[in-house]
Amino acid sequence: MKILILGATSAIAEAVARKIASQHGELFLVARNGQTLEMISQDLIVRGATRVGQAVGDLTFQEKYTEWFEAADHFMKGIDVVLIAHGTLGEQRELEKDPDLAFDIFNVNFISAALLSQAAANYFEKGRRGVIAVLGSVAGDRGRQSNYFYGSAKAGLDQFLEGLRNRMFLSGVSVVTIKPGFVSTPMTAHLRKNFLFANPEVIASGILKAIVKKRDIVYLPWFWKYIMCVIKMIPEFIFKRLKL
Amino acid sequence: MTLKYPSLDWDHTIESWGKYPKSKSIVCSLGSRKQEFSQSVQGVEPELSYLAYGRGRSYGDSCLNDGNVLLSTEKLSRFISLDAQTGILKVEAGVTLKEVLDHIVPQGWFLPVVPGTQFVTIGGAIANDIHGKNHHVAGTFGCHVKSLELLRSDGSRRVCSLTQNQDWFKATVGGLGLTGIIIWAEIQLKKIACPWISRETLRFSHLDRFFEYTLDSDSKFEYTVGWMDCLSQGAQLGRGVFFRGNHLLLKDVSEIKVKSDKIKTFPFNAPEFVLNRFSMKVFNTVYYHTHPSKKAELVHYRPFFFPLDGINHWNRLYGKRGFFQYQCVVPFEGTQSPIYDIIETFARSGLGSFLTVIKTFGQKPSPGLLSFPRPGVTLTLDVPNEGKKTLRVLERLDEKVVEAGGRVYPAKDARMSKESFQNYFPERAEFEKFKDPHFSSSFWRRVT
Q1: Using CB atoms, which residue from A35, A43, A186 is nearest to B79?
Q2: pTM, whole model, 2 decimals?
Q3: How close B87 comes to chain A (CA, Å)?
Q4: Cα torsion for B101, B104, B109, B112, to the nearest 10°?
Q5: Are the C-beta atoms of residues B351 and B387 closer than 8 Å to each other?
Q6: Which chain A residues touch B32 with a CB distance below 8 Å?
Q7: Where are the domains of chain B?
Q8: B79 and A47: CB-CB below 8 Å?
Q9: What is the pLDDT of residues B56-74, one digit of tens each?
Q10: Regarding the domain delimited by B196-250+267-416, which CATH topology (the fold level of the hierarchy) does it fall under?
């Protein structure tokens, strides 16, 4: 598998990359932190990756998008899968007070992820093949007082991907929306863990399976599909009274 | 105990593998091997002490730091390099032996020393200077560590080896995590042809025969270990089953089918009446009689080295109360060995041991200052925690081990007295010079 991973230093992305490396895949990684990227690249090579390329950059810099796709395409002689994995949760209370911070949350979680998906679609369209896998979140399924900035960004992304999937259907390009539940990662390091938390490795296996099977929308682990189904059914006049 | 922790983390109840004692700690995480020490422990009260925590597979309290801070090495999980020519593997300290083996075995390499479980980390293997079934030829894990990086609470980093920062290296190998935190290590791997072990099984009806087998086998077999029924006495004292094996040298056996290693999970803490002297006697007797002597057979390395890894949380068998693992080493001296007296004392004590293992240690010295293995014979007992009675019997064993000039393994201990520790490890005074002043453990506070 030849995969371009955007936001490659995220815990889930790294777990996916490790699995691909052990299957002797080829990887091209993009992330902000060059030092971490270097450590991950070394690790993937030892784990069996055929080759690992990297580019350091902020995923909100749209002017770089074409460059990255070209670099990845050149390095691996083609791309099979694009995985868009970056994101930040933000501190809800601070976001409510600081529009600049809030703007960043939308920019990172929605705007950049959507535009990168579009860039991937443009790249794949000519070849009439490819998989675009994007990390959404169960938080995007319903607005909650505890994280509606992050949640609404993911909701917007969810709908954007729905449209993109529809648009790319006839071109043979798959768009996979991945909705993980709670995952034990640096993003959730401050939260108290309970039985609903899954390890990035478990999520990564699910992501790979979804990519191979070209699924449309997957909840990971699987039980979140049913949890969110119930949560979505709660009428708003009740939901607004809940402390979630 | 209540802990103060500013905005940062919450207190976790932490158990070691023996489920005794229970402890509470703040858990911080080392973000990556390049992260500064101060960054990893941001916001922690300065008077608290630190201890690196891998997978919590030590049996007693040497991996616990009750009321203080544990530094999880979970994220130090990256490989750094593997030299396909020399077989030198450089990995971060939080990588488990399982991850290493899964990766290197298909490439024809093996770890130089493995313990009875592959779920320990590289850092833990060094800090406890673990040993395995090949101690008589290979020595301890520490004998094969080419170099390691030590990060101290003052933020300093040292690359340590037998040629560079030698004193620090010797203190850190077997140093129970008290000299600072091991960030990465270079390990010399050994070449193998395939994942298969050629194993022979020899049943022995008395401890005397074990000594005959082990004397005869240690020069011809790389791996030797005895399982023992420690509840039989008299003419059958120390009867058991002796296993010996070598790596298979053939290459073309890759078609042999490996039973899929579906791991089962022990679902809950067993009620405490399940393991009693009677049920242990039944188990030990059945095990003895179902393992007749067998000529060479092929077994995969996983069941050969890690039979218990097939059941997740097997420690739950002992129930909530947990268990003690007691491992001592005493001088060899053949049939005059003080081990006879120790086994007899235990067999008569009224306690039982579910799994008992006996093995001879070889002459190869470890670089580690506080390393446990010494030339001689080592005995490992798994004893359900039945409170005072158990502690009394183990204390009596301690007296005998001290008398014999032996020692008890700190990595498995949860109860040895200060006095016993001083007797076992006179190297402690020298070790103190290298101990990080801000590092400590429940074990260390107990024995010093």
Answers
A1: A43
A2: 0.92
A3: 12
A4: -40
A5: no
A6: 36, 39
A7: 79-192, 196-250+267-416
A8: yes
A9: 999 999 999 999 999 999 9
A10: Vanillyl-alcohol Oxidase; Chain A, domain 3 (3.40.462)
